[in-house]
Design a protein that fits this description.
The protein is mainly α and 318 residues long. The protein contains twelve helices and four strands, in the order ααβαβββααααααααα. It has one domain. Helix 1 crosses helix 2, helix 1 runs antiparallel to helix 8 and helix 8 packs across helix 9.
Length: 318
């Protein structure tokens, strides 16, 4: 599984950067611009994206940093997991949201912030929260903030190139409609590269799930994911779509097939039959399976299935 994920992630990144540099090369050739200038412009755009992204998250998310004396058990768990996995210790933040979720963001692993929602702390057991935290620490350990920030800049660059070529200010720059054709191709690259970025995001989630399962217990994260995804109807607090990719579970696409839902369910338990029913519904729903290609997170039934397999793998080794 780990080897399969590695090859899929590597191929996706190669395709993304291949699209980017192919588009930039075409742009340079069309306008007679030096390749060095094109590459320099691309690097500048990537740096801007990398620098601005954490600020956007702060501006668009209702969160505050936690002091060391707040939630001491949470600090203790984070410190213990970071020490165990040799991961830089992140800052902790509390998101004022009743929806149970968590995410990390930052420019580098050393400047990372691990944010948890009030709903997560009030809903899951401490063991389940520890598994969720381990998943987020996995993102820091794998440097996913940098990987995804850089990857997400590629469709943006393609989009602006497309707009520039299609809406070139003079007829001379349009060169008989060729610029429009190149611009349309750039829009196609934008669409395809967006799908590749989403695919890469889903792969990174599988990696972080495996990291959590190895350093805590796979069944704990599976239980947490089941509660977060199947234990809620669509949240009344529609999470800001700008940070969807950062959450442990996509807050906008939670399945709602379990028989009963509660707004507050600190003692909520999903029995085995309900879980199987919810997973089977999600697995067999053709619309949900199709829409997965436009999502930042894998379908929950796939994640739980992989975690169950990981638990069996760990059991065989012990």
């Amino acid at each position: 599984m780990a080897l399969k994920l590695f090859f899929a992630m590597t191929l996706t990144l190669l395709l993304l950067f291949g699209f980017l540099f192919g588009l930039l090369a075409a742009l340079g050739y069309f306008f007679g611009v030096s390749g060095y200038v094109i590459v320099l412009l691309a690097i500048i755009l990537l740096i801007i994206q990398w620098y601005v992204s954490p600020k956007i998250i702060w501006w668009t998310t209702n969160m505050r940093l936690l002091e060391k004396n707040e939630y001491p058990w949470l600090w203790k768990e984070v410190e213990k997991l970071c020490k165990k996995t040799k991961t830089p210790l992140p800052k902790l933040a509390l998101v004022r949201s009743g929806s149970p979720n968590a995410f990390v963001f930052g420019r580098t692993p050393k400047s990372a912030v691990l944010a948890v929602t009030r709903g997560l702390l009030n809903t899951l057991t401490k063991d389940e929260i520890r598994a969720v935290i381990a998943h987020e620490i996995g993102h820091i350990n794998h440097k996913d903030m940098i990987v995804m920030t850089v990857a997400a800049a590629i469709p943006v660059i393609a989009y602006f190139i497309a707009r520039f070529l299609i809406f070139a200010p003079t007829k001379r720059e349009r060169r008989g409609g060729v610029a429009v054709l190149v611009g349309v191709c750039a829009f196609l690259v934008y669409f395809i590269s967006n799908l590749l970025v989403l695919f890469l995001s889903r792969l990174r989630e599988f990696y972080a799930d495996r990291f959590s399962g190895i350093h805590t217990k796979p069944s704990l994260l599976a239980s947490a994911l089941a509660k977060i995804t199947y234990g809620l109807s669509f949240s009344r607090e529609r999470e800001n779509s700008a940070v969807r990719a950062f959450y442990i579970a996509d807050p906008l696409t939670a399945a709602k097939e379990v028989s009963e839902f509660k707004d507050e369910f600190s003692d909520f338990k999903l029995d085995e039959k309900e879980l199987e029913r919810a997973m089977e519904w999600e697995k067999r729903n053709p619309l949900i399976r199709f829409l997965e290609i436009f999502q930042t997170h894998p379908l929950t039934w796939k994640r739980i299935k992989n975690l169950i397999e990981l638990e069996k793998e760990i059991s065989r080794k012990t």
